[in-house]
Write a structure and sequence with these properties.
alpha+beta, CBS-domain, Alpha-Beta Plaits, four-stranded mixed β-sheet, four-stranded antiparallel β-sheet
């Protein structure tokens, strides 16, 4: 799963010499809270609706609408934009993009090519959509959560129990639990033999702590 396959291509942007009024209209049209600034195909900055509010006249101003427009036309995007922009390369994995967003507390990242050209935008919503699709949640899945010991052979034994009963596993996810034990999340299609498999797992010491059908 790579950023280039999940990003929004040809993102809406403005140039640094655009006026605040032009930028504001564009943001409201597309319902954006932040926008990237691109000059000659290269990313040079970004700004948010808060940056516009910071330089715009107060709602309590005595200025006329004409005077407000005139004032905003004198302020350019380059006067309010932030030049340090956190980005991700188009060939990065979605996991890398998600980690960058998490570490920097941002909801989206401009995507750049190896030569620094802006080629897209990837957002937390894009990553969430991918997660739902990859997990097959819309089509419906059974999700089992088992508590297991952290030892060699656990995965092999569990997968063999499912295979011996004709059940195909879609995915595994492991999460460290406590006292050197793990939570093992198994996603699979509903199957007539599933209840028998649950009993076998419990008999082998694999405690099922949660079971649910999703989708």
């Amino acid at each position: 799963m790579f950023v280039v396959a999940r990003m929004t291509k040809h993102p809406v942007s403005v140039t640094s010499d655009a006026t605040i009024q032009q930028a504001d209209r564009l943001m409201k049209k597309h319902k954006f809270h932040r926008m990237i600034v691109v000059d000659n195909g290269k990313l040079v900055g970004y700004f948010s609706d808060r940056d516009i509010m910071r330089v715009a006249p107060s709602p309590a101003t005595t200025l006329s609408k004409f005077e407000i427009r005139s004032l905003l036309d004198k302020i350019s995007v380059k006067d309010i934009m932030h030049e340090k922009v956190i980005t991700v390369n188009e060939n990065a994995t979605l996991e890398e993009a998600a980690l960058i967003m998490y570490q920097n507390k941002v909801g989206g990242l401009p995507v750049v090519s190896d030569v620094g050209a802006v080629v897209g935008i990837i957002t937390a919503t894009d990553i969430l959509k991918t997660f739902i699709k990859v997990m097959g949640l819309i089509g419906g899945k059974t999700r089992l959560t088992l508590e297991v010991d952290n030892k060699v052979g656990v995965m092999a034994e569990i997968t063999k129990i499912f295979a011996d009963n004709g059940i195909n596993i879609d995915s595994f996810i492991t999460c460290r639990h406590k006292n050197n034990r793990y939570e093992l999340v198994v996603r699979l299609d509903e199957h007539p033999a599933l209840e028998d498999v649950k009993k076998l797992l419990n008999a082998r010491g694999y405690k099922i702590i949660h079971s649910v059908n999703i989708g």
